[in-house]
């Protein structure tokens, strides 16, 4: 299962995770590897050494390929660092695969992405190919090997330059979108929709360090669709890691193991997202049902 397309690695300060993802890449031998590594934070003791250890591991890439590096001297943070890395990547490549250091894919993830990147290369509506599926207990017996959704899962993913061109880090047009028919209909649960709009507003205000919510919004705003495999293809090995930025807490559900997808891929008969599955994707990736009700109560109380 060789990888036929370019891969962007998003690295920082975790050499153990980096080693694992490099070993997985060694199995599939992508022809071009782009590496972005953020700079150490000035207030974190020992971080320069960890970042240096990660960059040293990049030097161990030993299969025939081109390696391109973008190493930051100063810490950019997730929002600006990842967005800048993706801009750099898609300036060079028409399409490709994106992996963070703690996203460990099954080898079948690579030909899965490669086939769909080619299949939908000129289809403007398809904007994102996700590798993770935390709701696979609801989809693993589907005859199709993937479904269409509006959720852009980023624990291992792929996209195109033409799609990334729609990325709005500042969430331009959010107020207009919030009043649109799409914003009022894309999820069956009204409070789930309200929760997502709140996340987008918080992101626009710079109150979180997320680039992923801006990308999610950009896809919704442009009425795009995403692809999710019916079996989980990427395991997040960083959940519960003290070095993680957003996933420090233990979450067994989020550590779902990666599985192998079978080929030839069986494609869906239509691309209309399933409303009930969209609800499951929300509860499994954003907010559990009970926690959403608590959040809803607190919003009422605050008002």
Provide an overview of this structure.
- The protein is of the alpha/beta class and 303 residues long.
- It has a single domain (7-302), classed as Spore Coat Polysaccharide Biosynthesis Protein SpsA, Chain A.
- The protein has 11 helices and 10 strands.
- The protein has helices at residues 15-28, 47-58, 77-92, 109-119, 136-139, 161-164, 174-178, 190-204, 212-221, 275-285, 289-302, and strands at residues 7-11, 32-37, 66-71, 95-100, 103-105, 126-130, 146-149, 157-160, 225-229, 234-236.
- It has an 8-stranded mixed beta sheet with strand order 3-2-1-4-8-6-9-7, sandwiched between helices.
- β2, α2 and β3 (66-71) form a beta-alpha-beta unit.
- It is globular, with a radius of gyration of 19 Å.
- The termini are far apart.
- 38% of the residues are buried.
- The mean pLDDT is 93.
Helices and strands in order, then pairings?
Blueprint: E1 7-11, H1 15-28, E2 32-37, H2 47-58, E3 66-71, H3 77-92, E4 95-100, E5 103-105, H4 109-119, E6 126-130, H5 136-139, E7 146-149, E8 157-160, H6 161-164, H7 174-178, H8 190-204, H9 212-221, E9 225-229, E10 234-236, H10 275-285, H11 289-302
Parallel strand pairs: 1-2, 1-4, 2-3, 6-9
Antiparallel strand pairs: 4-8, 5-10, 6-8, 7-9
Helix pairs in contact: 1-2
